[in-house]
UniProtKB/TrEMBL annotation:
InterPro entries: MPAB/Lcp_cat_dom. Coiled coil: none annotated. Keywords: Oxidoreductase. Its EC number is 1.-.-.-. Residues 13-229 form the ER-bound oxygenase mpaB/mpaB'/Rubber oxygenase catalytic domain. It comes from the Bacteria. GO terms for molecular function: oxidoreductase activity. The keyword Cytoplasm does not apply. This is Oxygenase MpaB family protein.
Length: 309
């Protein structure tokens, strides 16, 4: 029996269960917005403008399910995403050209912006990662690309390959009015109705958004020009990231989980039961399980390609 899509021993678990992922997820959305065609797909065919928080929580749910969900759960979610994307198209106002949401180069860009942001932010936040683990993480995430309709070899599977891809796509990236507005939304998002009880705490979000912005490449920050540049930004940002991560780690699990949608929490509860049945020790939750150096269960094989299911 395979208890989860990714093995708890994987680098995927090490990164995706870390609380620095809040910064990483917002940074990924800010980076994705720099693609002038991709941002039009978001702008025209999603509810991002009215509910940017919802977009972030949906991304969190996808990451959760493709990390510790069951294969059936991940296959079902992936099939749903591919079906929705196949039905959507949008027009690039700069060229008048019609694009599909599931256009190959756009899917690759979204995948790369996400996983490179996750890896970069986790590393800067203090998650202990070796160079070999960085390569392993990107290789593991090439399996996840299949859930949105890509093949493993469509995406970079090592840090060196990712750097080459980002360098190649860089000339086509720019800040559009929609991208700049997207960043502003993410810095001060609307609180969704089901999280209205968090409204008084909304000012606490700004440090997360500001740090997400500060971790973007320098050229991207200069192009956006939304927040002022601080002297020594790199070192200051890294220190602030580590401080925020330490603070988030102090929040008890039962309160931290209140942020997530019910479906995400339910997926985690079901994964916990599967892990217990497979012989893992999960009495103290996923974070304690992830931190162990010795597991009673054998390593879990890589998931099958959902496109072949």
């Amino acid at each position: 029996m395979q208890p989860t899509v990714a093995a708890p021993e994987s680098v995927t678990w090490k990164i995706h269960l870390d609380r620095s992922m809040w910064v990483a997820g917002v940074r990924a959305l800010m980076l994705q917005a720099l693609h002038p065609v991709a941002i039009q797909g978001v702008w025209q065919r999603s509810d991002f403008r009215s509910d940017p928080t919802g977009r972030l929580l949906r991304t969190a749910h996808f990451v959760a399910v493709t990390t510790y969900g069951s294969l059936t759960e991940a296959d079902t979610l992936g099939a749903h995403i591919r079906r929705v994307h196949r039905a959507l198209s949008f027009t690039d106002p700069a060229t008048g050209r019609l694009h599909r949401v599931d256009q190959h180069d756009l899917l690759v860009w979204v995948h790369c912006a996400e996983v490179s942001s996750y890896l970069e932010t986790a590393h800067r936040s203090g998650v202990p990662l070796t160079a070999e683990e960085g390569d392993r993480y990107l290789d593991e995430q090439s399996h996840t690309a299949a859930y949105v309709g890509l093949a493993r070899d469509d995406v970079p599977r090592s840090v060196a390959d990712m750097r080459r891809y980002l360098a190649a796509v860089r000339p086509s990236l720019r800040v559009t009015p929609e991208a700049r507005q997207a960043v502003r939304f993410l810095l001060w998002p609307k609180v969704p109705e089901h999280l209205s009880w968090l409204a008084p705490l909304k000012p606490l979000w700004f440090p997360v958004g500001a740090l997400s912005y500060a971790t973007l490449p320098a050229w991207a920050r200069r192009a956006y020009g939304v927040l002022p540049e601080a002297p020594g930004n790199g070192a200051l940002t890294t220190t602030a990231l580590r401080g925020l991560r330490a603070g988030l780690n102090l929040v008890p699990e039962r309160y931290y989980n209140l942020i997530f949608d019910e479906a995400t929490v339910r997926s985690a509860d079901e994964a916990r039961e599967r892990l217990l049945a497979a012989g893992y020790e999960v009495e103290n939750g996923f974070r304690a399980l992830r931190a162990r150096t010795l597991f009673r269960a054998p390593a879990v094989p890589a998931p099958r390609d959902p496109a072949e299911a």
